[in-house]
Amino acid sequence: MKIEPFGVEQWMNAWETKCDLNLAETCVASLTLAELMQMAGTTQQMPADLAAMQMTYGEIRGSARLRGLVAAGFAGQGAQNVLITHGTIGANHMVYQTLVGAGDHVVAITPTYQQHTAIPRSLGADVTEVALREESGWLPDWDAVAAAVTPATKIIALTNPNNPTGALIDRDGLERVSEIAKSVGAWVLCDEVYRGTEQHTPVPSIVEVYDKGISTGSTSKAYSLAGLRLGWIVGPEPLLDDCEVHRDYTTISVGMVDDYFAAMAFDAKDVILERAHDITRGNLAVLDAWIGAEPKARYVKPKAGTTAFVAFDVPMKSYDLCVALLQDTGVMFTPGSSLGVEGYVRIGFACYPEVLKAGLAKVSDWLASQGWRR
Ligand SMILES: Cc1ncc(COP(=O)(O)O)c(C=O)c1O
């Protein structure tokens, strides 16, 4: 199977370990296991049930306990509607493998996580991209989505909250895309990995709106536990049965230790999500004030997520701008070109506040040194 290189991941791989101040990261500042255990009220250094765990493959779909805890976050879903995967990346991959083949059609709303265009293409599907626009607040043009679907459309794919723009599709929008999908019998795959990072009111999951809605997510972003590599697919049981056929060949099961700590994170859900909100809301206020004070920068303020898509009115391509910033200041942004959109850079704002503030101050100094602060 041939597949195109993953732009963002290649950018990260090249620079992540070389930067001083990482404003390219998309996770809410990651927790240590000690912090997680403290938040969950575990006092033992090595919990007895973890020590006693026999290292088998575990429950193949993911433990019933964890699947129940995940399902509790979705109205009308039970443990039978959850399949545990290797991160959202594993979840998305499994959904495409299961539902899409040569000759099928997929509509992907872009910019998005590149999996949603590259994987269906690699499977031989025809992918129509419907572009989000800054002028529309980075929200989809539903008429364009309706015009893009055909009787061959298997999936309409979106990321909500959106990476990289931080836009959030509300219930009306989700109902609209569901109607469009229903008109051709398609699924809606909603990558909801940034769920839990909303600035204000959360929106429903696609599985609460559409009976052929599929939600993918993980403990990586709002739960700050990317190191667990623990994700899920939430959807109708027959779909999960079909996914499991593929999963048997690629995954068998997800690690029991990861499953254990993910369940612990759900036990401490309130505390962890409150921390995530404190970081994302406090930091977005910092970023917003900075954008307001930088005459060359503009953006649509995110409604959710951990990233903002910022335009700099300077005569440099996004890649060159990001490399110059890295080399001159040590600050790492992500070029829009690695997400398929020139003219913008993605700023990850969910790091520790002091990292964000120090990074933005360095960028301000650099812009001034180029004569771009007036
Ligand atoms: C939209 C989106 N989907 C999926 C992923 C993969 O996340 P995970 O760590 O859950 O595999 C990412 C990671 O950045 C993402 O931004």
How would you characterize the largest beta sheet? 7 strands, mixed
Gyration radius over CA = 21 Å
The ordered H/E elements are HEHHHEHEHEHEHEEEHHHEEHEEEH
Low-confidence stretches: none
Strand content: 15-25%
Q: What fraction, in percent, of the residue positions are helical? A: 40-55%
Shape: globular
Number of strands: 13
SS-based class = alpha/beta
Bound molecules: pyridoxal-5'-phosphate
From the N-terminal CA to the C-terminal CA, the straight-line distance is 51 Å
CATH topology of the largest domain: Aspartate Aminotransferase, domain 2
Number of individual domains: 2
Instruction: Count up the helices.
Output: 13
Mean pLDDT: 97
CATH architecture classification name of the largest domain: 3-Layer(aba) Sandwich
Topology:
Blueprint: H1 7-15, E1 21-22, H2 33-39, H3 48-51, H4 64-71, E2 82-85, H5 87-99, E3 105-110, H6 115-122, E4 126-131, H7 142-148, E5 153-159, H8 171-184, E6 187-191, E7 213-218, E8 231-234, H9 237-250, H10 256-267, H11 269-293, E9 297-299, E10 307-312, H12 318-329, E11 331-332, E12 334-335, E13 345-348, H13 353-369
How would you describe this structure to a colleague?
The protein has about 375 residues and is an alpha/beta fold. The chain has two domains: about 5-30 and about 270-370, Aspartate Aminotransferase, domain 1, CATH 3.90.1150; about 55-270, 3-Layer(aba) Sandwich (Aspartate Aminotransferase, domain 2). The protein has helices at about 5-15, 35-40, 50, 65-70, 85-100, 115-120, 140-150, 170-185, 235-250, 255-265, 270-295, 320-330, 355-370; strands spanning about 20, 80-85, 105-110, 125-130, 155-160, 185-190, 215-220, 230-235, 295-300, 305-310, 330, 335, 345-350. The strands form three sheets. A seven-stranded mixed sheet has the order 2-8-7-6-5-3-4, sandwiched between helices. Strand 9 and strand 10 (about 305-310) form a beta hairpin. The N and C termini lie far apart (about 50 Å). The mean pLDDT is about 95. It binds pyridoxal-5'-phosphate (PLP). Pyridoxal-5'-phosphate binds near residues 26, 163 and 193.
